[in-house]
Amino acid sequence: MEKAKVTGWQLFVLMFLFELGTAIVVSPGLGAKKDAWLAVLLGLIAGLILYLVYNKLFQLYPDLPLTGYMKKILGKYAGALLGMVYLFYFLYIAARDLRDFGELLTTSTYIYTPMLVINAIMILAVAYVLHKGIEVLARTGEVFFFALLIIGVVGTTMVLVSGMININQLRPVLEHGWKPVLETAPLTYTFPFGEMIVFTLLLPYLDHPRLSLRIGWTSMSISGLLLIWVVGMNIAVLGVHVATRSTFPLLSSIGLINMSGFFQRLDIAVVMTLIIGGFFKIAVFFYGALMCASELFRLPSYKGLIFPFCVVILLSSMFIADSYAHHIKEGLVVATYYVSLPLQMGVPLVLLIIALIRRQS
Amino acid sequence: MKRPKKLTDKKSVQNSTEKRDRNLDQNLTNNLNKIKKELGNSTDLVIREFTIGNNPALNAAIIYMNGLVDEQTVSEFVLESIKIETPEVETATKKGIFDFIKTHVLSVGKINVIQDWDKMILSLLSGHTIVVVDGCADIVTAYTKGGESRKISEPTSQLVIRGPKEAFTESIGTNAALIRKRIKSPNLWLETIQIGSVTQTDVAIMYIKGIANEKVLQEARDRLKGIDIDGILESGYIEQLIQDHPYSPFPTIYNTERPDGVVGNLLEGRIAILVDGTPYVLVIPALFIQFFQSPADYYQHFLMGSTLRLLRMLCYTLTLLTPSLYIALTTFHPQMVPTRLLISFAAQNEGVPFPLFIEVMLMEITFEILREAGLRMPRAVGQAVSIVGGLVLGQAAVQAGLVSAATVIVVAFTGIASFAFPSYNIGIPARLLRFIIMLLAGSFGLYGVAMALFILIAHLTSLRSFGIPYLSPFAPFIWADIKDTLVRQPLWSMVLRPRLVNQENMRQQGKDNKPTPPDESKNN
After folding, report:
1. Tens digit of pLDDT for each residue in A93-121?
2. Residue of A nearest to B464 (CA)
3. Which of A32, A90, A167, B61 is the most exposed place for a label (fewest CB within 10 A)?
4. Which of A143, A257, A271, A287 to mutate to test the interface with B (most CBs of B within 10 A)?
5. Is the preceding peptide bond at B246 cis, omega within 30 degrees of 0?
6. Considering CB atoms only, which of A10, A109, A136 is closest to B458?
7. How confident is the model at residue B14 (pLDDT cuts 50, 70, 90)?
């Protein structure tokens, strides 16, 4: 771990950017059709409950990151092995997010630019910031939080004022009953709310540890509600059929804005949102992987690992899938049920139970 | 904290003189010869030998450097008074006469008794007049510093419409007095040290005890003491040798030629570093936002002050980004430009032989050349250069179809915007980085610009000035300090000093300073 402290506000901002990150552009939960927003809400609630588990573990071991207390709870070898799993998991998710990001840019604006170049620039920028340390990442987050806020307020106002929202597109609620909603809820939980697991590695940096629960919950709730608003807005603007078929629903709905022929083609605002959010999401996962590795291999500093990890993330983002469809399919099925759910929900729960039992005995 | 690398080895700089007696001799002639020899018989050394009173045994001399002293002071208060004949002189011993001169004769404000040879040479070269009496190993130095120096004049690089018109001069004494004149508090403290093994330049730290941050103060002292260089010619030397991030293009030390600017900063708990020989006074620690604050912001109405500040920030962004956005939008994202404007751009670009990126780059470089030439050229040819540069280059280039009119407008606009900052040296990084961002915009469009901004902001947040984060109070976000950043709140609402700079003695004014007109109903 570095010698650094992150203020509550900075952690809030990082969590906020992280949660919205790519999710706001990709719009999760559309599997539940019109009730996508309900699915996101369920995911949020599940996420808030699971954050309690992460937080409890943090309170039990306030100085240790996830990999640290894993070793304490499960023993040296089992803990290290599981730490390796998390290391690969974070690298994998970072690569996935980078791929999401590259896909959006290449499909929306940079049709002729190879994705490798787009991704390489992104990961290099992330590497530069991580090289400066967690404090710089957090402060950069503070600056871009305001940028995102302005984009968000302007975009939302435009959508509201231009009168494209047709609330009837969202009705009837629960047309097909609870089943599709409940089926989609695991997806909306794992992406983006369950991904908060990576913050178990960042919580030890918090300057006032007792605030961790409040910060996490407010940040998740606010970003979750925003996500619900965006998902609902996409359906209300585009209609459920276009929204579910669209690769990037937010891009499509914002692209429709046309006010008096002057304020139009605001797609760039969406692209900027994704650049900002994607940057922080990749950066936090990248940092998580670096923390895992330096903790596992007892490295005094993670800086030597930045470049190799950079290459790993970049190349995996390219080879992870043949096409975007393949990429999304993998994300919805394999990544969710076999990787994310156990690692985001199963392992922390087991860890907490063992820790509590040990504490009692 | 990183310390700039030592420039020179101490031994190589100092004259490797053989070991010799570093005290003064009793014999006057020996002393005088030694001084002459040490200064290489320099012709500006003035030695006036005389006898005191009518006693031929009492030989004495006064020594000073021509031009460094105030001739009038020397003749009236040193020479004249020493030559006065009094009965005591007739009977006095050599030691007695020395004490007599010291206590009764010299009518100069500041005198010193020195035995050490090096100190004597230093005070001689600093403009003191030295009185040597035969038979005494002590000397008296009288403070007669003077000579020619520039008068206090109006600031040349930091102009304001409303506010004091005084600027610092090249003399450190005058500069310190200009500050002290404005702060009549015993807590305004001044520490002077000499830096530069050859130049022995006076460098002073000025701060208000009880308001200044002690940690920063100690850090500044340590860093100044760590400097080992042969000469300090300007405060820029000091700045480069004590700044936190020597490779960053962004200035982490503020400099100003306005006494009121320094006073404002001192009152906020900052520390001023005065260097002899330059009108630019350094102020530490410096925040990024500080370079956009002009003293005039505080003198005029807060709405105007705030608006102008926002305007300057806007200008900074424009300086940095206009050419890159122009390149990115027209070449990569034409769909974002309104159709009519796009058609107009395309029509203008029709005959231009270069790609837009090359075109903008060429024009930007041309502008930089004009700017530099305008600065260096003799006044007399100024007209010619502005006509050739402005009209011929601009107008003719467009007519000849070498560049499009839109490009000229963009470049000219960027150029004008780059002059809007109250502090010259914050414009330098914008000027430099503009070209890098243009390169990225030319290769990757807006994505390249966005990535450049990410790295730029990450770089800015990683900077520190004497331990204070450079981008505070934005990152880390400090709500209490936001009052005097992008906008300036009304004066009466800024009750506390900036929190990061100053940690104790926060209150800077009373809580109810808000002017309230008398209640009309009560008067009636």
Report:
1. 999 999 988 988 888 788 888 999 999 99
2. A136
3. A167
4. A143
5. no
6. A136
7. very low
pTM (two decimals): 0.89
Q: What pLDDT is attached to residue B84?
A: 67
Q: Give the residue-averaged pLDDT of B50-60.
A: 76
Q: Identify the CA nearest to A130 among candidates B461, B246, B439.
A: B461
Q: Is B457 on the interface with A (CB under 8 A)?
A: yes
pLDDT digits 0-9 by tens, A241-265: 898 888 888 888 888 887 777 677 7
CB B444, CB B451: distance < 8 Å: yes
- Which of B338, B446, B471 is the closest to A139 by Cβ? B471
* Contact criterion met (CB < 8 Å) for A142 and B333: no
CA distance B450 to chain A (A): 8
Mutate to test the interface with B, among A9, A108, A140, A268 (most CBs of B within 10 A): A140
- Rounded to whole angstroms, the Cα distance separating A81 from A71 reads 9
Give the start-to-end residue ranges of the domains of chain B.
23-143, 172-286, 299-468
Residues B369-411 have pLDDT tens digits of 888 888 888 888 777 777 777 777 778 888 888 888 899 999 9
Question: For residue B443, what is the nearest residue in chain A, using CA coordinates?
Answer: A113
Residue of B nearest to A266 (CA): B336
CA distance B229 to chain A (A): 31
Look up tokens 């078929």; give the residue: A245
DSSP state of B14: S
Span B194-253, pLDDT tens digits: 999 999 999 999 999 988 888 899 999 999 999 999 999 999 999 999 999 999 999 999
Using the beta-carbon criterion (under 8 Å), do B451 and A139 form an inter-chain contact?
no
Q: Which residues of chain A lie closer than 8 angstroms to B458, CB-CB?
A: 125, 128-129, 132, 136-137, 140
**Which of the four pLDDT bands, split at 50, 70 and 90, describes residue B502?**
low
Inter-residue contact B102 to B133 (CB < 8 Å): no
Distance CA A251, CA A271 (A): 8
What secondary structure, in 3-state letters, does chain A show? CCCCCECHHHHHHHHHHHHHCCHHHHCCCHHHHHHHHHHHHHHHHHHHHHHHHHHHHHHHCCCCCHHHHHHHHHCHHHHHHHHHHHHHHHHHHHHHHHHHHHHHHHHHCCCCCCHHHHHHHHHHHHHHHHHHCHHHHHHHHHHHHHHHHHHHHHHHHHHHHCCCCCHHHHCCCCCCCCHHHHHHHHHHHHCCHHHHHHHHHCHHHECCHHHHHHHHHHHHHHHHHHHHHHHHHHHHHHCHHHHHHCCCHHHHHHHCCEECCCEECCHHHHHHHHHHHHHHHHHHHHHHHHHHHHHHCCCCCCHHHHHHHHHHHHHHHHHCCCCHHHHHHHHHHHHHHHHHHHHHHHHHHHHHHHHHHHHHC
Q: What's B257's DSSP letter?
A: S
Residue A143 forms contact with B (CB below 8 Å): yes
User: Residue B199: which of B237, B241, B231 has the closest Cα?
Assistant: B231
Q: How many CB atoms lie within 10 A of CB A105?
A: 23
**Architecture of the domain spanning A8-360:** Up-down Bundle (1.20)
Q: Which of residues 433-452 of B touch A (CB under 8 A)?
A: 444-448, 450-451
**Residue of chain A whose alpha carbon sits nearest to that of B451:** A125
